[in-house]
């Protein structure tokens, strides 16, 4: 089953998609679907985020301390430095995108847990 969605893409993005589709001998819509699928959290991840409210206090507090694995964090920093220097290869770009997705999902989990911990009175509200 699928749902039709109409998108307005910037001209340069559309050009990149059509050129890549031609190179890969694939349909433009397949390329866009693959790109969206690789960037969005899975339904399981979204369910886990919604389920944080059902976790024990101990589990919620543990999630507030969630950190990326040191090796992955170091590699992410390396790749971000290479990107800023304009030295990132396409393969490294894909690796960077995957690490950024992992990092963003971790931040979502941590922020949801922090909100839940504050809501339960387990920790004081964060001050800005």
Commentary on this structure:
The chain starts with 10 loop residues before the first helix and ends in an 8-residue tail after the last helix. It folds into 2 domains: 1-40; 41-128, no CATH class. With 128 residues, it is mainly alpha-helical. The radius of gyration is 19 Å and the shape is extended. The longest helix has 31 residues, at 90-120. The relative contact order is 0.11. 70% of the residues lie in helices and 0% in strands.
Main pleated sheet: none
Number of domains: 2
Shape, principal axes of CA atoms = extended
| Total strands | 0
Sequence stretches where pLDDT stays below 50 over 5 or more residues = none
Distance linking N and C termini: 45 Å
List the total number of helices. Answer: 6
* Mean residue pLDDT: 93
Strand proportion, as a percent range, falls in under 5%
**Roughly how much helix do the residues carry, as a percent range?**
55-70%
Label the structural class: mainly alpha
Secondary-structure element string: HHHHHH
Give the C-alpha Rg.
19 Å
């Amino acid at each position: 089953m699928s749902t039709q969605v109409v998108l307005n893409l910037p001209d340069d993005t559309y050009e990149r998609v059509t050129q890549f589709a031609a190179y890969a001998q694939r349909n433009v819509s397949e390329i866009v679907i693959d790109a969206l699928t690789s960037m969005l959290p899975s339904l399981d991840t979204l369910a886990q985020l919604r389920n944080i409210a059902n976790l024990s206090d101990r589990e919620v507090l543990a999630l507030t301390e969630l950190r990326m694995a040191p090796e992955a964090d170091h590699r992410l920093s390396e790749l971000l430095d290479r990107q800023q220097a304009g030295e990132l290869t396409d393969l490294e770009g894909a690796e960077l995108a995957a690490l950024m997705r992992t990092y963003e999902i971790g931040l979502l989990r941590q922020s949801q847990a922090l909100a839940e911990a504050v809501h339960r009175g387990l920790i004081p509200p964060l001050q800005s």
